[in-house]
Design a protein that fits this description.
GMP Synthetase, Chain A, domain 3, alpha/beta, 2 domains, globular, 318 residues, four-stranded mixed sheet, 40% helix, Rossmann fold
Length: 318
């Protein structure tokens, strides 16, 4: 039976009202489609009972905080921005293992929301959790593919109750709901971004230098692919970005030896993120991405393109 966005919205709003009653909630907004759709549903269901919070963890896309503020203002959302960059980077210092990263990030988010809740009479945390998040996080006989920060990364003891209105939906269904709610296309069609942010696009230890490299490389890859799509040179992938490998390779800068980082570009076609095929990007687009990254990010000396499907790979690096 086809998914009906209108019918879902009516039921979701009723469920939110029934679950929350007169209690207040912190609504976590990250800038992505899932969190904005969840926040919009909650705002319609229980107006006046929400405290909408965006946490800048230092692991977001380039200029993301400014963009989230602008969208919130355009939508008339009273958004509180919490600068937690130092808190996250300190907690992740020296951490290499991907699952450990995810759990550290998940707990840090919750503790920040709990801190915010202390100032008000807040009982609930509203998240944009969707079906792939809890499916891939494992449990109930399922293997853990990766612990999503908002599911498997949550601490065992929390002082806030969860409200997850999108929990049974897949990404394409969330997009339909966002469109039906009247959210701008820039939100309901925005490409996915991982909850742990760039932490899972930096293979190995996270440093401020590496964050800067990935922010710039992602921005270049996204802009060049967007331009190619606009010029009708290719179809828009479901998700596309750049990531950083931990090892360096030898290259040449001018007439001198260089020992620099390797950036990996990834673009995939998918419906719901559960499976994916790599996108066939025109060679001239890849060449443009590679040239810009190595010219504009002087600590990167090599760019490669990932042609791995899911499975056996995952979409993100970690």
């Amino acid at each position: 039976m086809p998914f009906e966005a209108k019918k879902f919205i009516v039921q979701a709003e009723e469920d939110i009202r029934e679950r929350m009653g007169k209690d207040h909630a912190i609504t976590a907004v990250s800038g992505g489609v899932d969190s904005f759709v969840a926040a919009t549903l909650a705002a319609r269901a229980v107006p006046g009972q929400l405290h909408i919070v965006y946490v800048d963890n230092g692991l977001m896309r380039k200029d993301e905080t400014g963009k989230v503020k602008a969208v919130a203002k355009a939508l008339g959302v009273d958004l509180k921005v919490v600068d937690a960059r130092k808190r996250f980077l300190d907690a992740l210092k020296g951490v290499i293992e991907p699952e450990t990263k995810r759990k550290i990030i998940g707990e840090a988010f919750v503790r920040i929301f709990e801190d915010e809740a202390k100032a008000t009479d807040v009982k609930f945390l509203i998240q944009g959790t969707i079906a792939p998040d809890w499916i891939e996080s494992g449990g109930m006989g399922r293997d853990t593919i990766k612990s999503h920060h908002n599911v498997g990364g949550l601490p065992e003891k929390m002082h806030l109750k969860l409200c997850e209105p999108l929990r049974e939906l897949y990404k394409h269904e969330v997009r339909l709901v966002g469109k039906e709610l009247g959210l701008p296309e820039s939100i309901h069609q925005r490409q996915p971004f991982p909850g742990p942010g760039l932490a899972v696009r930096i293979v190995g230890e996270i440093t401020e230098e590496k964050i800067h490299i990935v922010q710039e490389a992602c921005d270049i890859a996204e802009n060049e692919i967007d331009a190619a799509v606009a010029a009708k040179k290719m179809e828009r992938p479901w998700q596309y970005f750049a990531a950083l490998l931990p090892s360096k390779t030898v290259g040449v800068r001018g007439d001198e030896r260089a020992y620099q980082y390797t950036v990996i570009v990834r673009a995939v076609r998918s419906l719901d993120g559960m499976t994916a095929n790599f996108s066939h990007i025109p060679p001239e687009v890849l060449e443009r991405i590679s040239t810009r990254i190595t010219n504009e990010i002087r600590t990167v000396g090599r760019v490669v393109y990932d042609i791995t499907n899911k499975p056996p790979g995952t979409i993100e690096m970690e």
